[in-house]
Amino acid sequence: VTWLELPPDSLFGVANLPYGVFEADGVRRVGVRVGDAVLDLTAVLGDPAFAQPSLNAFMAQGRAKWSDARARITGLLTDRWHRAAVEAALHPLPGVRMHLPFEVADYVDFYASEHHATNVGRLFRPTGEPLTPNWKHMPIGYHGRSGTVVASGTAVTRPLGQRRGEHAPTFGPSARLDFEAEVGYVVGIGSPPGVPVRTSEFADHVFGVFLVNDWSARDIQSWESVPLGPFLAKSFATSVSPWVVPLEALEAARFSPPPRDPEPLPYLTDTDKWGLDLALEVRLNGQVASRPPYAGMYWTPAQMLAHMTVNGARVRTGDFYASGTVSGPEREQRGCLLELSWGGAEPLALPDGSVRGFLEDGDEVTITATAPGAGGTRIGFGEVSGRILPARAGKA
Amino acid sequence: VTWLELPPDSLFGVANLPYGVFEADGVRRVGVRVGDAVLDLTAVLGDPAFAQPSLNAFMAQGRAKWSDARARITGLLTDRWHRAAVEAALHPLPGVRMHLPFEVADYVDFYASEHHATNVGRLFRPTGEPLTPNWKHMPIGYHGRSGTVVASGTAVTRPLGQRRGEHAPTFGPSARLDFEAEVGYVVGIGSPPGVPVRTSEFADHVFGVFLVNDWSARDIQSWESVPLGPFLAKSFATSVSPWVVPLEALEAARFSPPPRDPEPLPYLTDTDKWGLDLALEVRLNGQVASRPPYAGMYWTPAQMLAHMTVNGARVRTGDFYASGTVSGPEREQRGCLLELSWGGAEPLALPDGSVRGFLEDGDEVTITATAPGAGGTRIGFGEVSGRILPARAGKA
Questions:
Q1: Catalytic site includes residue A115
Q2: Nearest residue in B to A146, CA atom
Q3: How far B151 CA lies from chain A's nearest CA (Å)?
Q4: Could you tell me if B358 and B177 are in contact, meaning their C-beta atoms sit under 8 angstroms apart?
Q5: With a cut of 50, which residues of chain A have pLDDT below it?
Q6: Cβ-based contacts under 8 A for chains A and B
């Protein structure tokens, strides 16, 4: 039992303890969120890996050390003997600034929701089968841009780019700017070149889970993507939440993924149950726009990691991969405006009466999530948010 | 006039002076190639940026410092006064080991040869137009995997993966393993978020040029690539040459790119002539397999950088981008086996009588290039080479 005086429904009690990088007194270092404060781990644990502006050094220590640190933090928060020392190292959140939690090595974005892929297929290829023939055989993914991954709260400037025109492409601000509500996974322990990571080894490599908004310019995307995939439609910004929830906090959230038909190849077999029962919520200017359920995702993060390395590619500390847009079967569970407004044809009506096909300048998108935690609690992921700024003045 | 006693046709005289990272006595540091030796810049220039295991610190100093260093090195090699000191800092190449020249931030691969894109379009989409409608309006590109970029000489293990099957995909070693002869560009000075790099600013950002072999598994590629582009077909390995030729050494190699029809959008207008007259050569087990000319490439590296940043994406020190396969109009100028063997249908006959559809285990691919240098010289790029190792024992 903790000595912390948190409300019983706190999403950030001892069952959670997510890690992040906070700045106080001009110095960035690693902390753990406790209630509405951040605990300075450099002050209470004395491991130099925490006196860093990213989680990378700590993540590189491996699963046993992750577990050990979590046990020690839990000890500090339950043993009254430590209360004074811990309280002295707690910084109320309003007094700190949160940063990108890790230094990004490679970034891969998957496409793991069957509902999302089916909807997008119907919209982009209305005359064909909605799912491509490979979709149920592998988690489809592609590499994104690491250098434009930004912390939650960073404003996102509407991108300029080429769009399909009647006779020739036109150039200007994207008119179909979108969010994508996703879940991200960061690699703590890399793998050597040539040695695939098996699905059973997922928790030896992946440190934790966070939220991602993979901003997308749909008009740029539909013009540029054939034949080599999305590029500038995605590379202008990808926002991530500041708190990385360690896998150990997600034991109660583990969930059987839906049955796969046809059976995937053996290297993609689920040996452990790595579906996750996360409840996402997307708010647009404070209004609920969608509530995507993560539990129905077709491919698990363990399968994504196994697929990504089956060709011998190594992973490194700081690599992260995202699930792709999380969409459920219902309209109000779709994870992006492209689906929610059906390509703009059926604009989304928000509770306050406002209506959106795609994002307007000034719009603020906030994605949050909760999951079952230990002992019947719920744990929170915090939020990833960003506001759209008008495109820069610029001509083609 | 240099005091160096190099043969007059040396590809590595004072007109070239490419930078690389060499290891001698167990320490990695930056040097410049002079003839068949490497000059230890830490020993002769005393800038701590050279006492680093990558070019990144030096590249981050910017164009004026690049120019200054080149002038100082040229001075050392022309003023006899310095001869003894310089000779003491020269390491014959056989006694050193060359490493990856820079730490890779983001990696983007383009598709800038019209001949290559046309051939690939004919092979992959035999019933449609060979070029997609966007191809002549923008340099098509996608993000590759930074963590699997390897130094020349690193062996490449044949990847395993999924291939299209009659009823269901099959799994196993790629049966259509290929090379791609490309030219790479590394960014020295990054750009701030939201500010595109104009074509006229190319030489303020890009430090230099090198050779790339973008190994490709064509069977994995054709099964996985729709709709999000190539992923595991490319991510197992990308080899780069050890020597980065600075832009200043390439003044005599600058070349007018072919006329573009239709005229591209204004942000892609060529303000300066950044076509490059590089003559590539691909050898397979020592036999000449192809001689791709770079001068005919449709899109220049200045256009690629302008396109990559037009949406506001920043670039960083260590970002590199590659041209895509360099293919000329003639069959013997094609830069990959997919084209040279027409998808395996017309196997390539090498001078020694051997025949290849795709790469076999044990095959060694070496790509070299030369270009016009100052004063009527020719300058060399060195080589990027790699040998294919058999796939690891592995089942699906």
A1: no
A2: B106
A3: 14
A4: yes
A5: none
A6: 190
